[in-house]
UniProtKB/TrEMBL annotation:
InterPro entries per UniProt: Anthracycline_SecMetBiosynth, Glyas_Bleomycin-R_OHBP_Dase, Glyoxy/Ble-like_N, VOC_core
Domain VOC: 4-126
Protein name: Glyoxalase
PANTHER family: GLYOXALASE-RELATED, VOC DOMAIN-CONTAINING PROTEIN
Amino acid sequence: MANLVTWFEIPTSDIERAKTFYRTILGIKEELRQENLGGDMPYAFLPMEPGDVSGALVQHPNYKPGEGQGVCIYLVVQGDLNDTLAKVEPAGGSIYIPKMPLGEMSPGYMAQIGDSEGNRIGLWSAE
């Protein structure tokens, strides 16, 4: 199996402040590329090359920094994502965001679940 981790999202309450923080501590010289997903969700992408595991800073009411929220790591799922989601609740987890296409941002599908410990985990699949 290649990388199990495919993507992560770091919630922010002030995306400009967070961009400055991460550029400073990581020594990133260039400005972070920013897009508004869905029109109201600022995403600032951390540097990445094709094939890299990377992530973004995200500001949205559904993404809250801190306790009970925090960073969301996306794990790679083989096969149809719905097959994996069907196992989540019987295993003691919760489905926060059902399977949805990523569209032009990235090929594939994503979902977010709560694991058995209450952690928010993202899932990604090509199917």
